[in-house]
Every structure is written in structure tokens, then in C-alpha cells.
Task: inverse folding
């Protein structure tokens, strides 16, 4: 008997590809970045709160993309935005970026390429992949997502970076151009994400949706995205549970 | 001791990514297409030489892309060109495409998505992947290359289709935009191909080069590309031999 793919109630379509938000949903950016920031601080002989530094660096992410979404700035890849934001985060913590070698800063910026997966991510993706196309649907650029996959062992079938769609989520084209590269109807593509706003934007343009809870993405005191805030097609507490729900 | 990547004599760079021409180099398009054409002919109750049909269909490939390379026609993905060429190949063999259902023709067109790998491809790629980024560098579009990878079990790290570079080999931008998506210097990228003209174009824009002999790509009477016709960095008779030469 051949496999029957999950049919999305919201789109009425069988799901062919399950694409994942990555930062927060598949990998633990806060722990990964804090670890490398702590090593950097030790090497530089400075004292700082590595988690606070990671939170600050990450907080500059949305404003930087917003300049591009709004058309104020032409498309610029995420590695470049992270590098600019790193200077600002360093200054916020009392470190002059001019006094650190360019190579050291370039290395630290690559901490986003080396983020650790959540414990269930690799096994869950491998299971889902048996019956569905799997890939990231992220604001990361291709080389970042590729390094992340090789470092974390993420078994993607395909990587469509934001430098390929040349736009940033949650703009509609980020989702639609991704479906187009896959030659799939938007309703045949499911976005799995730990962020309700990402799922909301994906549903608006006709994708199937799955919430994956990551209640400690922002640390022990996280207050948002603790639960699904829409009637998403599926809701799971891990990628392995999502695999079960998809019948994979 | 950490792995020392192969250093290309022609570029002076260590190779980080080994990218493969696919049709002919990684997969056996002639056998794969002929097999599906033969099944189509049986189902339609017509007699035809399936290998001659495959050769004819493939012969229309370069002229179709040439209209795009020359700027006569805007970028059109390979699936669409194959579909147009199928009509012409059918007519050449005395079959009116109008008399065949659209769905049957769409299915037959997908034979390019289901090509069998050469016997050494999967094992060779898996070995090279341990130490190098591996991916296709093909005129195929992303969804075609993705289906091909899933069907043939090709363990790519990343797929950069021609619909992402929006140009066709052997134009320089096909190679250079691919290196750019990988955030690599062209000299850190090696093209592995069974076609001397592809390698020539890649070397012109600064890529490292490897010839992989496929002396039966065009059938038993093949007369070209039997041997390397340039001083390519490496020359191998299989992808597994290429893995050895790369020290992988």
C-alpha cells in the first residue's frame, strides 16, 4: 500500500514538502551564540553576560530586515546584516569593534552557521524526509543554512536561502517564491515554525501550517509563542511528534 | 590530524565544494529516457526506436537553451524547454502530440526527473561529501534536480538550480553565481563533468576542474568526450575514483 500524505484541512491539499523556520524552530540560536560569545569574551579578556549579548544581537535582526522589507535598502544577505549588528551589540556591551581583529569578528559572526540543533530535530527531520520533501524556509542565506546543515547534521533535501528568493519573511513572496522553486502549489507546502506570526503570514498566502513549540528559545523566562495562537493545521511539541502527526 | 583539502594546481586554492554536471556525468539520461519512452510507446500502441527518440529529444536541448543564452528569449526553466522539445521529438517520430493526453505527456516529460545514476555515483558522492560540499551544477531547474536526487538517492548538500542563477551553462554567470550563493571564491569550487566544453567554460571563469569519463553516455558508438581534452586538475573514470584523487 502506498503512503498517503497528510492532507491539510486549511488548504485541502496533500502536503508534499514540509519546510522549517530554522532559527528557534530547528536550532537553538541563543545557546549556540552565547557559547561562542563566552569563548570570545574569554579570549579578549573582557567580562560580559553572554546570554544578554546573544539576546541583544538577535534583537537587532528584525529592524535590520525591516529596512529591506520596506524598500529603504536593497536586498542584503543575512550574514552581512548579522555582521553589522555585531558591531552594534559589541558597542552596547562596551567593546569597541575597531579594537578587535576583523578575522576574529568574522569568526564570531559565523556562530550563526554553527548553531546546535534542538535534541529532536535531526531524528524528526530524517523521519519526515522518508515521505516528504524537507528543507528550511528561513531568512538565512544559502551558505549560512548550508554550513548550519553540515555542522548540525540536518538532512535537508534542498536549501532555498533568502538570497534566492531575495526577500525576507514575513513578506508574501518569501513563501510564494519558495513554493515556485519547488514547482508546488502553495497549499502543498507546509511551514513548520515556533513563531505564530510566521505561521500567520504563511497561511495568508495559502500554505499549510504546523506549530512546533519551543518554550525556551528565548531562555527560561520566555513569555511569547508558548502555545499555538491560531487554528494551525497541526501543533506539536517537537519535530519527532510532528513526524508522527504527519504519519511519516 | 585534520583533513587537508585538495589544492587545485590551476587555481592555487584549496577546493571546498565539488559540484557536478548531472545529465551524463552523474545520471545516465539516455538509458533512463529510453526506458520511459519504450513504456510510453507500448501504452500508446506505437512502434519506435526508444534510444533514437531519446537522442532526438536530447539533441533539441542545446538549441532551446541557446535562444535564452543569446537573449532572444527570456529565462525559461528546463522543464518547460523539455516539454516543448517533446512535442517536436514526437512529431519527428510520426506521433501527433495533440492526440496524446496532456497528463501522459507531462508524465513522460518527468522522465528527466527520474534518471538512473551511474553505478559509482551515489557511493562516490557520499565519500566526497565527508570532506567537501557536494551539489549539482546543472542546467536543470531546482525541482527537477530535487526529484532526481530523491529518486536516485544522490546525497547532495545543496541544490542550486539554473532557475536560481537564471542563466544556462556555459555562460560565465552560471558558474560565478553558483560560487556566490556558496560564498566561495570561484577557485574554491571544482566542477566535475564528463564534457570538455563545460570544463573549459568553468576554467575560463576561474573554477577548478575534474574530468569524469562517461564513454557510453551517448551509447556504444560515442565519439566525443572519450578523454580529457585539456589539462584539467584531475581526470577520473568514475566518481569513486575522483573521491580517491581528492583524498576524501
Result:
Amino acid at each position: 500500500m502506498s503512503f498517503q500524505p497528510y492532507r491539510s484541512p486549511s488548504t485541502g491539499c496533500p502536503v508534499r514538502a514540509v519546510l522549517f523556520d530554522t532559527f528557534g524552530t530547528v536550532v537553538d540560536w541563543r545557546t549556540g551564540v552565547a557559547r561562542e560569545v563566552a569563548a570570545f569574551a574569554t579570549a579578549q579578556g573582557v567580562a560580559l553576560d553572554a546570554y544578554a549579548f546573544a539576546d541583544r544581537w538577535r534583537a537587532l535582526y528584525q529592524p535590520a530586515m525591516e529596512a529591506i522589507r520596506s524598500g529603504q535598502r536593497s536586498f542584503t544577505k543575512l550574514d552581512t546584516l548579522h555582521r553589522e549588528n555585531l558591531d552594534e551589540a559589541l558597542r552596547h556591551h562596551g567593546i569597541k569593534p575597531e579594537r578587535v581583529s576583523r578575522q576574529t569578528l568574522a569568526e564570531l559572526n559565523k556562530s550563526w552557521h554553527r548553531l546546535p540543533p534542538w535534541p529532536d530535530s535531526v531524528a524528526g527531520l530524517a523521519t519526515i524526509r522518508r515521505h516528504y520533501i524537507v528543507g528550511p524556509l528561513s531568512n538565512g542565506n544559502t551558505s549560512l543554512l548550508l554550513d548550519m546543515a553540515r555542522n548540525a547534521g540536518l538532512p535537508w533535501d534542498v536549501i532555498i536561502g533568502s538570497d534566492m528568493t531575495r526577500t525576507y519573511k514575513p513578506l508574501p513572496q518569501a513563501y510564494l517564491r519558495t513554493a515556485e522553486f519547488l514547482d508546488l502549489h502553495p497549499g502543498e507546502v507546509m511551514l513548520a515554525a515556533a513563531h505564530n506570526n510566521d505561521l500567520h503570514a504563511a497561511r495568508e498566502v495559502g500554505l499549510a501550517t504546523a506549530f512546533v513549540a519551543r518554550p525556551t528559545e528565548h531562555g527560561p523566562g520566555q513569555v511569547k509563542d508558548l502555545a499555538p495562537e491560531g487554528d494551525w493545521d497541526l501543533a506539536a511539541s517537537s519535530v519527532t511528534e510532528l513526524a508522527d502527526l504527519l504519519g511519516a
Remarks:
- Chain A has eleven helices and five strands.
- The CA atoms of residues 71 and 163 of chain A lie 16 Å apart.
- Chain A has a mean pLDDT of 97.
